[in-house]
Amino acid sequence: MPLTAPTSADTDLRFERVVDLPPEAIWAAWTTPELVNQWFTPAPWRTSDTTIDLRPGGGFHTVMHGPEGERHAQAGCYLVVEPGRTLVWTSALLPGFQPAPPTPEGFAITATIRLTPEGQGTRYEATASHADAASRARHEAMGFEAGWGAALDQLVALMKAQARPHG
Amino acid sequence: MPLTAPTSADTDLRFERVVDLPPEAIWAAWTTPELVNQWFTPAPWRTSDTTIDLRPGGGFHTVMHGPEGERHAQAGCYLVVEPGRTLVWTSALLPGFQPAPPTPEGFAITATIRLTPEGQGTRYEATASHADAASRARHEAMGFEAGWGAALDQLVALMKAQARPHG
Question: What's the pTM?
Answer without folding.
Answer: 0.90
